Amino acid sequence: MTSAKIKEILQEKNGKVKLYALCKKHFDLVDQWEERLTAGDLLNEYELAQCMERLTGCMMKFGPISGALESQKEFILQNQLVVEQAKFEDKFRTQDNDIAKARARKTAEELGDIATDFRHYFYASQSAVVMAQSRLKRLSVEKSAKGVDFTGEVPNV
User: Fold this and answer.
1) pLDDT tens readout for residues 42-52
2) Which pTM value belongs to this model?
């Protein structure tokens, strides 16, 4: 999803709710894999490969959205800062700058919270993919050492 599409969604009425709704399937998928991994289910290599594929897809969804939300938040923050600083006109003091920054941050706060949700789900997906890769490699090495049901690459020696 592009930044322009996300900006368009956010400008709609209930745009933030719509953005979450568009990604609900991906949030649920990350939560489902989190439950399986937390429960300590012994996953075989096919389930681990499925985990890697699906959560990589989630990362591909959450990453661009998180980046676009961060960009939009920064844009709103900077614009609102200019507006707040303009309110002080000629009598602008150092402490007025702090007040203007605080008001501007308050304006972009909700968008920052949404961006944080997407960013943390991205990180959760990333951690699970790395874990699945590590576990898959370990299973492959163990099978190779035992010479049983080995599905990895075999050296041509």
Assistant:
1) 678 888 889 99
2) 0.79
